[in-house]
Amino acid sequence: MSAQLNSKAEFKPAPYTDQYIEVAGLKLHVQDYGTAGKPAILCVHGGAAHAHWFDFIASGFTADYHVRAIDQRGHGDSAWDTSSTPDYSYQRYAADLNAAVEQLDLRDFILVGHSMGGVVSTVYTATYPGRVKAFILIDSTICMPPERIASMQAVGNREGRHYATQEEFLANYKVRPAGSVAAPEVIRHIAQHSGRLFEDGRWRYKVDRRIYAMRQRMDSFPYWNNIKIPALLMRGGLSARITPDVIGEVKSRAPQVQVAEVANSDHHVTLDNPAGFIQAMQEFINKNK
């Protein structure tokens, strides 16, 4: 399956309402794009990102689905784990997701996870079966190499950049990892939701940098042995994360898995080519109704 459509200019960020739920003593933020009463879609962002990564694709589904996106702990507008040894493990994120799903009373829903959120969603789907109807993983690194983990830990253990004003923050904002081909107005929209004013009067990223400092290596391939529902590996056409070897390994454990490539996109597929993403996801949904 290959999604070629690319009409970024047609897409505007979808309207939403804010919701907060308490999970394991932390307040987690949920963006609700509507439409209540429809079958549910829940979206999970990647590392150091937030729910707004789905603003440009949500409206492609709200006619037929109730679409939500959650900020994981330590990200976006959700609370940080302020304990001396914060738990930002994949298992903790998956447990948070399970608690959120139960509180929101989601059943037979479609789960969408990007990058780190795709791995969290893999752990959730394999560990807490019964509620997810179909799973879409977007351009995740399914087994992170040790040198990449070491690099992330080094980043998390040093002070991040800070800025005197919001405009200075916005002017210097870049999505990570680099390589996005998203339109400038899309990146600026993401930037506007990525920083906040801290108590010292400086603007910084909303994310708790300790999510990187505490990052542990995760080989998520074994979890696919326990995933029996329809699932899609979606890769950006310009990204090298989901290789033929990765696809072969996943399919050896979960033969029902399908694959889609979204052209004109790198790792940040929902930002780079929203129309292509929507097309690929709709084709998968229609095939697995």
Main β-sheet, spatial strand arrangement: 1-11-10-7-6-4-5-3-2
Name of the level-1 CATH class: Alpha Beta
Poorly predicted regions: 2-9
Radius of gyration: 18 Å
Task: Give the integer mean of the pLDDT values.
Answer: 94
Oligomeric nature of the chains: single chain
Distance between the termini: 17 Å
Q: What shape does the CA trace take?
A: globular
Tell me the CATH topology. Rossmann fold
Which second-level CATH architecture applies?
3-Layer(aba) Sandwich
What percent of residues are in strands?
A: 15-25%
Sheet with the most strands, sense and barrel status: 9 strands, mixed
Question: How much helix is in the residues?
Answer: 25-40%
User: In sequence order, what are the helices and strands, one letter per element?
Assistant: EEEEEHEHEHHHEEHEHEHH
Number of helices: 9
Overall tally of structural domains:
1
* Name given to the CATH homologous superfamily: Alpha/Beta hydrolase fold, catalytic domain
User: Tally of extended strands?
Assistant: 11
**Class from helix and strand fractions:** alpha/beta
